[in-house]
Write a structure and sequence with these properties.
33% of the residues lie in helices and 16% in strands. With 250 residues, the protein is of the alpha/beta class. The chain has one domain: Metal-dependent hydrolases (TIM Barrel), CATH 3.20.20.140. The radius of gyration is 17 Å and the shape is globular. The chain binds zinc ion (ZN) (2 copies).
């Protein structure tokens, strides 16, 4: 079985509805043989989510705990017109910016065309790295259009293991659409991340609900950005160079 020892989407107690601290997450990751995790707590618009101080202060967390690289990030909320719930300056404190559409965030988006448009607009933000769970029952998007925009804007699209967790109140994934995402990655060349979306330490790196992806004839590890730690560290270095350059030209 293809083994992935990184996870670009995890939540801590700071999210308000997750149950482990950063230290517990790091130890949990170490015990599972993981080499890198991104801490991506929800943006401030989600009920119970952290306020902006949380993100501004995140840099005090060590870059490495128990030998696990800790990437400081966010899962921001996509709002109307593709705006995010942190300003560009606030996003600038972080190493990795993910974003997705979530309930109860006041996004005011009402149908597939609007979810698609907001997602595509969000991807135009040069600080955005990854769209979380682009496949979700509640907020369906036109995957082909989102895939095209991901390739154009160099944004990662996620396959989210937690979307298929049978213990969740409602599973949010749609298998046929997740498989379609694999095919679209081959067609357009954007990168995919395989993530847990862990809200408890034991779920870090838990990807078995995505076995239907690993077993698919369309699965190609070359398309998976978090297939190795080096892929991600190279990506993060390149991202920083690109954003520094952009800062200088403004
Ligand atoms: Zn999410
Ligand atoms: Zn999440």
């Amino acid at each position: 079985m293809f083994k992935i020892n990184t996870d670009l989407h995890t939540h801590t107690v700071a999210s308000g509805h997750a149950y482990s601290t950063v230290d517990e997450m790091a130890r949990g990751a170490f015990n599972k043989g993981m080499k890198l995790i991104a801490i991506t707590d929800h943006g401030p618009k989600l009920p119970g989510g952290p306020n902006v101080y949380h993100f501004g202060n995140l840099a005090i967390v060590p870059d490495e705990l128990y030998g696990v690289r800790i990437v400081k990030g966010v899962e921001a909320n996509i709002l109307k017109n593709g705006n995010l719930d942190l300003t560009d300056e606030e996003l600038g404190y972080l190493e990795f910016v993910a974003a997705g559409i979530h309930r109860l965030t006041g996004h005011n988006l009402n149908n597939k065309a609007e979810y698609t448009k907001a997602t595509i607009e969000a991807m135009k933000n040069p600080q955005l790295d990854m769209i979380t769970h682009p496949v979700q029952r509640e907020y369906p998007v036109d995957l082909e259009k989102v895939a095209e925009a991901a390739a154009e804007n160099n944004v990662i699209l996620e396959l989210n293991a937690s979307s298929y967790n049978p213990n969740k109140y409602k599973t949010r994934g749609i298998k046929s659409e997740s498989l379609k995402l694999l095919k679209l990655a081959q067609k357009y060349g954007f990168k995919i991340a395989i993530n847990s979306d862990a809200h408890f330490y034991d779920k870090i790196g838990e990807y078995s609900t995505l076995n239907f992806i690993f077993e698919s004839e369309y699965f190609d590890s070359e398309l998976i950005i978090n297939s190795t730690v080096e892929n991600i560290t190279n990506y993060l270095d390149e991202r920083q160079r690109r954003l520094n350059k952009l800062k200088k030209t403004v």
